[in-house]
Amino acid sequence: xxxxxxxxxxxxxxxxxxxxxxxxxxxxxxxxxxxxxxxxxxxxxxxxxxxxxxxxxxxxxxxxxxxxxxxxxxxxxxxxxxxxxxxxxxxxxxxxxxxxxxxxxxxxxxxxxxxxxxxxxxxxxxxxxxxxxxxxxxxxxxxxxxxxxxxxxxxxxxxxxxxxxxxxxxxxxxxxxxxxxxxxxxxxxxxxxxxxxxxxxxxx
Amino acid sequence: xxxxxxxxxxxxxxxxxxxxxxxxxxxxxxxxxxxxxxxxxxxxxxxxxxxxxxxxxxxxxxxxxxxxxxxxxxxxxxxxxxxxxxxxxxxxxxxxxxxxxxxxxxxxxxxxxxxxxxxxxxxxxxxxxxxxxxxxxxxxxxxxxxxxxxxxxxxxxxxxxxxxxxxxxxxxxxxxxxxxxxxxxxxxxxxxxxxxxxxxxxxx
Lengths: 204, 204
Prior knowledge:
The complex is a heterodimer.
Chain A: H1 3-21, H2 33-41, E1 46-47, H3 49-57, E2 63-67, H4 71-76, E3 83-84, H5 93-99, E4 105-109, H6 114-125, E5 131-134, H7 137-146, H8 157-177
Helix pairs in contact in A: 3-8
Chain B: H1 8-26, H2 38-47, E1 51-52, H3 54-63, E2 68-72, H4 76-81, E3 88-89, H5 98-104, E4 110-114, H6 118-130, E5 136-139, H7 142-146, H8 171-174
Parallel strand pairs in B: 1-5, 2-3, 2-4, 4-5
């Protein structure tokens, strides 16, 4: 064997040992600031309330709504299918694990846009891809879906189509989110069977 | 021991081992993009102590404090149409340009960011905070709210304007629950059957 080859082998092994001895670097998936800035400046993270409503009605399995408000507010009212991750708990490990799941689109919402947007900035920085924001939050949800304004008569026909959709969606969600009505089973009335009166019948 | 003879192939291999391999290991990712951790940012975001109300900004403008610099994040066109007194225009996408970062690095000054609304102001503010600029604040309500001249409603003073629940969400569902409830089936009217009159029947 050539001495040169042996020398190189020794060098390669040396580098291998060095790499092995290197201190483990903290694993971080943070994205570079300029990419984060671009995402912040562009509106691609937003879903409109109409889009969310139509996805909910279609029972889109890829949609996962996330309510970032306090548990009390969540218990009082939340959109169908939403899970509650209060903003202050968003960095907990199990929540980050859940949000990093790539098969679903995680859409944050709050009363307005701000808190949901803050949750989004934090998760985006950490390199989580599938997070979005419902624009306008619940305030806008009420204004568009539950209580849509009637378009002026000069509006294009699309506006009327949208209005019709919203009215229909509103009535759907009123049914969907109403507290489940407990079905009271009417007590079964036991109708006593009448005993057949034995009539005296003369036999033949 | 003879001298180690390296031919050109060996030199190339040595170069690869010594330069390219460590290069790959170390250039994978810069050590850290953000000097401030997510947890610290989350705490600041929850406390909202860097958020100024339009009233506080107005007061600072009136006092003519030269250490307060307003930063308009909107487009140049919007800026030309109207902006707050003494504001400099930095469109969102230019935020991380070198000369702008140099400006934010001036620790003797306080920079107050604003955009058209507080959501668009908050994202860039969070980004700069994460990059370690702690002399940057954000104006609540944004420009659109500021120019209305209205004071912030008492109940949301200091909190976010956008996040104030404008409706009692649950009530939208309560009021309409009646039409959701399943129709009560009218109680069945039991028509008492007439008793068959038993006739005494004689035999054949």
